[in-house]
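Field notebook, page 276. I keep forgetting to write these up properly, so this time I am using the form the group agreed on. The chain and the ligand, magnesium ion, are recorded exactly as supplied. Prediction of the bound pose follows.
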Amino acid sequence: MPVNAPIEYYKAEEKFTGAKTREEKILYLEEMIRLLPKHKSSENVLARLRKKLSKLKEQKPKKVGSKPKWSIRKEGAGQVCLIGETNSGKSTLLKELTRKDVEIADYKYTTTLPQFGMMKYEDVWIQIIEIPSTFDPQSISVAYNTDLVLILLDVNKGLGKQKKELDDMLDSRSIKCKRLYVTTKKEIDIEKLKSEIWRNLGKIRVYTKTPGKKPEDKPIVFKKGVTVEKVVREVHKDLLEHFRYAKIWGDSVKFGGAQVGLDHVLKDKDVVQIRA
Ligand SMILES: Nc1nc2c(ncn2[C@@H]2O[C@H](COP(=O)(O)OP(=O)(O)O)[C@@H](O)[C@H]2O)c(=O)[nH]1
Ligand SMILES: [Mg+2]
């Protein structure tokens, strides 16, 4: 250790030891070099510090995209992330939507890890995830690959400012998925919110039907814009060779039982009968 180094030197050294990023390390190392008394007895230390510094500077800065990422395995028909300031009512909403036991508290940052549960909407289940308001890179990374971000805005605080701050935060983390906004701390029509979530999720339900039988109870869920071809492939890929036409009942056709080809685009709740 160098003799006669000022207390600031040791403080910088402590910060350097605790530094997590390359940038921080460089910063405190440079400070240490600056604060180190330059005389004969500190020459060796100085040389060591300079070597460390040049090594650090040679390292390539880590790409933003190479940060550790989390994802929560998608379950059900789609995935929604709840994002909002602390105490904006995320845990409360998660509980209302999923009837899951979650920690709700009147103090800040109760939720430190993403919490999730399943929400039932008509005949599908949708996964709801609460992202902690710390917005640390790992937690927020859950939202990269999600289907919908539901942004909670506390009605008692400036709505415009909250919206801008949250939008900016998501933009700066390159989270580009669809966003839906909900104002909390006032009466929320949960059923209406559920159907809005479904409509914004970018998914549709299709029910297959064998001739002479009732449509299947359980839907197959597809991305919006799906064509008959994709459905045929999903049902049985060998069916495609022998495909003749499909009969459709639902919103994508003018009348029930209309005949369509492979490139017909389906709508939510369509019933599809494949004729081969
Ligand atoms: N009056 C009212 N209070 C709420 C509402 N939502 C949340 N709160 C209260 O606000 C506090 C924080 O809620 P919480 O759901 O834990 O917020 P989070 O930090 O965003 O998860 C708790 O005391 C809740 O009881 C709401 O819709 N109305
Ligand atoms: Mg919470």
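OBSERVATIONS:
- The longest strand covers residues 115-121.
- The longest helix spans residues 43-58.
FOLLOW-UP: compare against the apo run.
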